[in-house]
Amino acid sequence: LREDARLLVVWPDLSVVMSSIADRLKESRELIWRVPLSIAFIVTLAILHATLDLGDETLNTAWLIMLWYGFILIVTAQVSTTAREFFSGVGTSMFQAVDYIVRGTPRPAEDPNQQTDEQKRRAEVGFWTLMPSAFITWIFAKSINNSAIWGSRYGIIGGFAYAGFYMSFFSAALVGYLLRTRSGYTSLPTAVEKVYGPVAMLGFGIMLFYRLWNEVWSNTAVVASFYSEEVWTPSWWASAWVSAIIPAAYVMMGGMRSSLVSDVLQAGLGVIFLVVILGLIGSEVPGGVGGLISNEPEGGWQPGGYTWLIAAIIQGCISYPFHDPVLTDRTFLSRPSTMIASFTIGGFIAMVFIILFSIVGIYATYRTGEVSISNPPAKVARALGSTAFAFINLVMMTSSMSTLDSTFTSASKLIALEFGGWFKLPGDDREERGPLKLNDIANIGSAHILVARGTIVFLAVVGTLYLYVDQSSISGTTVSGTMVMGLGPPVWLLIFWKYNSTPGAGDGWRQAPLAFIFSWTTGAIFGIMYTLNGRKVGGVPAIMQNYAVGDGSGAIFLGWNIMGHCLCFAACLVGFLINQYVWQLPTLDAEPTREHPVTGERIPTPGYEQVAMAAAKKEIKVAHI
C-alpha cells in the first residue's frame, strides 16, 4: 500500500512538470521552427532513400552523414526573436534556453537595460565564441579544395601561398578596431556611406552581395563533387541543394546568433577531422607526413609557388578582406580588445589549417605521380577507402556549411539594415533615411527580420542555380580578389579620416565620393581585363603578359595586382583631392560616441559630449515609451 501511495503522489507531479515544460516550450516559440523542419527532414530522408539508392555503400553512407549532420545543426540551432539576437549575435545561450524550458529558470530580460551585469556579460559574444567562428567561417570548402590543388602543383609552398590570403584576418581586425574605437562606427558599410556618400554605398553593397552570392555556388560545388564524379547528375544536384538548404534553414531560425553557436561546434569538429585525415594519409607513406612533404615528384613541382605567395599576401593585406562581409561583420562583434585577440589567434589557426590541408594535394601527386590534379580531396577520399572518404567529406561539409551560414547572415544584414534603412520599413521611426546601425535597436523591427529571412531564401536559390553556368571554385578566389582591389585604398583611408573637431566646425575633411568611385572603378576595370585575358597564359597572346612579375602561372596575376593596386591608390588620391578643392561637399562631423577599447561601452567623442548626452536622453525616453 505504501508503494501504491508513493506512485499516486509521484505521477500527478510528473504530469504537472511535463505540462509546464510544454507550456514553456510554446511560449518560447521554438516549436514554430523546429517541428516543421523536423518533419521536412524526415520527408527528405525518405525521398532520398527511395530515389538515390546509388548501389554504392560509401555514397549511401555519405548521404546519411550529410542529412544527420544537418539535422543536428538544425535542432540545436538558436532561435532568435529579437533584432539584437538576429543581427548582433547577442542573446541567451542554448544552455539557458534549455534550462528555462526544462526547469523554468527565468531567462534574462530581452531589454539589455533590464539585465544585470552578469547577464549582460553572459549574453556577449565572447572570445571562445568569436575566435572559433572567425576561424571556421573562412575555412571555405572552396578554399581548402584550392589549397589542396596548389599543394598538388607546388608542394608545401602551395599551402603557404594560399594561406597568404589569410593575412586578411589581421588587416580586417585592425581596420575594424580603429573604426570602432577612434571613429565610432558599428559596421563597414555605415562608414562608407557617411564618408563617401550613398552612391559609393550602393557600389560597395553591390560588390559585397556579389561576393556573398559567389560563396554560395563555389562552396556547394565542392560538396557536390563528393557525391558524383560527374557534374549535373541527380546526385550531384541533390547534394548541392541540400548543402545550401541546411545552413539556410538554421540561419533563418536564429540569424547571427545561430551562426555563431553552430560555428563553435563546427570549428572543433573541423580540427578533429583534419587530424584524423592526416593520420590516415601518414600511415600510407614511408616516413609519415614529414616524409610526404619532403618528397618531390619526378620532374619536380611546377614553378610559381613563391609568386603566388607574394600575390596572395598583397591581396590579403591591402584589399581582399574588405569585399567579404563574412569576415568584416565579425570585426564589429564582441568588445574591441576581445575581437583583436579572437582574430589574431583565429587567423593563425586558419592559416595553419590551410597549410596542413594542402598535404592532401601533395599526397594525391605522390599517389598518382601527376602534378596539378583537379579536385584532389575527392580523389584522395575515394582512393583511401570508406573511412577516409567519410572524414574528408565531413571536413568539406563542415567548412561549407559554416561558411554558408555566415554568408546568409551577412547577406541578410546587408539587405535588411544597410539597404533596408533607406526604405523606412515598419518599425523604423528615424527622421532621416540611411543605413541602420546595429546599436539602433529601437528602429529595427520584425519587418527587418522578415526581409532578412527572405534574403536568405533568395540567395540560397539564386546562388545554387548559378551552378548551371560555372563550377570552378578557384575562380571564386583569384578572379573575385582581383575584381575588388579598388576597395582597399578607400577603406584604409577611413581610419585616417579627419572629422570636424566640434559639430559643424568646418575644420574636417569634406565628403569624398570620388575617392571611392575612382578607386572602385579602376579596380573593377583591372578585374574585368584579368578575367577576359589574364588566364590566357602560354601560347595564347595576352595584353597583360608585358606586366608579368615572377614565374609560373601566377606571374600575370602578381604583376597585374601590383600595377592595379598602385593605380587604385592613385585614383583614390585624385578623387579625394577633387572633392576637397574642386567639387567641394560639406565637411563631416564625427560620430557622437565611440567604443571603449576594453569594455566596449559607448563613450562620448571629444568635442561631441553635448550631442552624445542628447542622444542618450532620447534613447532613454524611447525605452520608457
Describe the protein.
There is one protein chain. Residues 5-12 and 534-541 have low confidence and may be disordered. This protein starts with a helix and ends with a helix. The protein has helices at residues 2-27, 31-51, 57-75, 83-88, 94-103, 117-123, 127-137, 141-154, 156-163, 168-181, 188-224, 234-282, 288-294, 305-318, 325-328, 336-368, 376-384, 386-419, 446-465, 478-483, 488-494, 513-534, 555-581, 609-624; strands at residues 593-595, 602-604. Strand 1 and strand 2 (602-604) form a beta hairpin. With 625 residues, it is mainly alpha-helical. Helices cover 67% and strands 1% of the residues. It is built from 24 helices and two strands. The longest helix has 49 residues, at 234-282. Helix 8 (141-154) packs antiparallel against helix 9, helix 11 (188-224) crosses helix 19 and helix 11 runs parallel beside helix 22 (513-534). A two-stranded antiparallel ribbon has the order 1-2. The protein is globular.
Gist?
This protein is mainly alpha-helical. 67% of the residues lie in helices and 1% in strands.
Write the layout of secondary structure elements.
Layout: H1 2-27, H2 31-51, H3 57-75, H4 83-88, H5 94-103, H6 117-123, H7 127-137, H8 141-154, H9 156-163, H10 168-181, H11 188-224, H12 234-282, H13 288-294, H14 305-318, H15 325-328, H16 336-368, H17 376-384, H18 386-419, H19 446-465, H20 478-483, H21 488-494, H22 513-534, H23 555-581, E1 593-595, E2 602-604, H24 609-624
Antiparallel strand pairs: 1-2
Helix pairs in contact: 1-5, 2-3, 3-12, 3-18, 7-12, 7-16, 8-9, 8-16, 8-18, 9-14, 9-16, 10-14, 10-16, 11-12, 11-18, 11-19, 11-22, 12-13, 12-16, 12-18, 12-19, 14-23, 16-17, 17-18, 18-19, 22-23
